[in-house]
Structure formats: structure tokens, C-alpha cells
Amino acid sequence: MKPVTLSGKEIIKDAGKGAIFGIGISFAFRLALAGIPTSLLDGLKTAAFGMVIGFTLTFCIEHLTKLILLLLPGLTSFLPFYFFLSFMVGFGVFYGASYYFQPFGFKPYDIFRFSLAVGIFTAMTGLFFAFTWETKEKLRLEKENKELAILEERNRIARELHDTVVQNLFGMNLHLNAIDYLNEHQPQDLPGVIGGLQKTVAEIQAKMRLMIYELKPTVFMGKGLFEALEELATVFRAKYNLRIITDFESQEENLSGKVQTGLYQVFQAALSKIARQAQASTVQVKLEITSGGSGRLMIYHDGQGGAGEEERNGQDTRRHLQERIGEMNGRMQIDTKAGLGTTITITF
Known about the structure:
By secondary structure, the chain is an alpha+beta fold. The chain contains eight helices and five strands. A five-stranded mixed beta sheet has the order 1-2-3-5-4, with helices on one face. Helix 7 (about 255-280) links the parallel strand 1 and strand 2. It is elongated, with a radius of gyration of 34 Å.
């Protein structure tokens, strides 16, 4: 938990733990400087001194850290701040308490150097806890981002199901309802209707296979991005009789995991749109990656756009593409020339 989020009760609880830790340190000082306590009272004084130091140090450091970070939140990730604050509090508290109580036979000239040692030890401990807080916060944010990504992916899949499979099933239902009427009044039209149903079923099967393939969690396990893209291209070559030419340049290791996943999803959505709507025979894919992790994905096909239902579905697919590209902080440009095909360029 970050210091700025600690409540008063949590600070008191941590101070109690600090008091216990302080008792142990106090007895270590006692053994090193003055030997074993000679009486019960001597042992109680040693324990009391350590308890006061440990409680006060912990309470002051956490309380001051919370107040300062509330006023200056920009210091949250500035590690020297925690070092300096912990050093000053450690030095000041130990110096003041030692000067007043003069434990372990301390002489005035010993107090300063021992206070410096305690200040340095406290500062290093403060750095350790600051690093621990920062690490826990990063892990918490990563967990939240993963949960958000899963939710967004579920919403996207729900939209795709509605935009494709559900609507096709609705159309099938209309055709099925008409079969009895056609069988009785227009039997000559039945073969055409049944053929249309068979085509719709085949389309639904193809779409469901692609969606199931997309949902496979093992797509990158044991594979790099280029290998996964090539495998996906092979699937579309076999299912849609497409001629897909791929050209992948530079090192995929330069890309973050998020960008690699995004590129895979964009590539899949683009191929799906081309296979279903463009009536293309050839697709050319080129992926360029710079050493800095940016790059460009270009997808060209020699097909053409559709109309009516196909055009509406194309707009839905374009929206899905833009959503995924936006997650990579990328941009998309589509250039279409009559009779010359279409080029999709994604920069990231």
C-alpha cells in the first residue's frame, strides 16, 4: 500500500510493529556496547528505549510521508525523497532520545556518530519499503489493466457475434419459416432457398472457426509474432483459397507484448474482412519494425468493396480495426483505387 493511502489506524498499526522491531535493535545495541543487562530493571529500560524509538520513528516517517505526498504528489516516485526524509527522522529521533536518556552508557560525543549510523540505517530501510510500495503498485496496476483488457475483449467478441453470427441466424430463421409456404405454393423456389441456407450455414461455420481460433490462449506460446502471423496466413490460405504473400522485416523482439498482440488481432481482422467481403485472390503483407519499437504494417489486396449488407459489415469491421489500432496508439489509412485494389497502412 502506498504511504499516501495509509489511514491513521494503519499508521498506528505499523508503528506498533516498528516498536517491536525497535526492541530487538535496542537489545543489539545493549549487547554490543554495554553487555548483557545486569538486572530486570536494566532489561526493561533497554526494551522501553527501543520501543519508544521504533514506534516514534515509524509513526513520524509514515505520517510525514503521507502529509508531504498529499501536498507534493510529484515526489511519489522520487526515491531520494524517501532516503532524505527517513535519514532526517532517524537521526533526529535517535539523537533526541539518546541525549535525553543517555542509554548504554553513551557519552555526549558518542551520541552524534551513533545517531548518524541510525539515520543511515533508517534511510536504507525507508528506501527498501519505498521500492516495495512502488513494486506492489505496479503489480496492482498491471492486474487492473489485464482485467480491463479481458473485459474489453469480451465486449468486442459480443459485438462481433451480434454483427455476424446472430444476424445470419436471424436470416436463416426467416428462410426456414418460409419453407412450408414455398413447399405448398411455390415448390420451384425451394432449391434456391435451401441453397441459400446451406451457404449461410457455411459462412457461420467459417466465422465461428475463426473466432474460436482467435480465442485460443496458446497462440503465442512457444512462438514469436512472425511465426504466429505466418500460421494465421496459412489458415486463411487453406480456408479461402487466397494467395497470401508475407514479408516480415527487422526484429519482433523490439515490440512490446501489447503491440504484438494488437498487431496479431489487426492482421486477423483485416484478413477476415478481405476473405469475406473483398472477393480478392491475392493479398500482400509487409511488416516493418524499427529498433525503437515503432513500425508499419501494410496489407494490400486486389479485391473490391461490396454493397448493402457487405458494406455495412465492412464498416463494422473497420470500427473494430480502429479500436484495436487505437489500443496500440497507432493510426490507420485505407487507400482504394478502382480496379487496382486496396492498401491498408497501419503505423504504430
